[in-house]
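S.,

Sequence below, as promised.
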Amino acid sequence: MTVTTRAIDYSHDGKSFEGLLAVDNATSAKRPAVLISHAWAGRGPVEEDYAKRLASLGYAGFALDLYGKGVFGRTTEECQALMTPLAGNRPLLQARLLNAVEVVKKLPEVDTTKIVVMGFCFGGLCALDVARTGADIKGVASFHGLFGAPGNTKGRKIRAKVIAFHGWDDPMVKPDDVKALGAELTEAGADWQIHAYGGVMHAFTNPQANDPGFGTVYNKRAADRSWESMKLFLAECFA
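The prediction came back faster than expected:
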């Protein structure tokens, strides 16, 4: 097995972006693809590592870019400034996400009929928003994502399977928000599941997260459990 990566340049609405594709070159066959939507800092080492991890499982892993080529937040203030305009303009965010899906479908390594979108924190919101648009993909997965409905997709049917991995003690997503997401997904006719982990906060998959005051704390057990469940979810989506 030889996992290789290459940068993928693409554009949307006149703006340049750069994703990272990871594949196992042991085969030339087309394979299912998993897009990884980044947290609030932008596409970086964490998302790229997941792309490689997915490639080692036989998928095409694609770490997408929502901020623009070379744009990355390094401080809390910078990250907030990058995320806020998109979080406040969900139609624009959804358009960028759907454009990334179309970019991936055109890659020669990819089976266009087998696409899943996953994401972390802000990226988890992004994954859910792809499903909310009614996109014809196999599934979406949100890891400690934000659950707030966008307001522009009510009444649309969700075709993708949906899974959300959530820390029950996440201060950014309260139990009432979890119930609201379940109700929203049910109304949209989705095949959905929510895995909530007790005693777990936001950003639980990120080993660098260690700020209880901010509500972001790594939890290896929840990270491992969610990843094992994710592998089962992918197998089901791509069966």
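The helical segments are 45-56, 76-87, 90-105, 122-132, 175-187, 220-237.

Coffee later?
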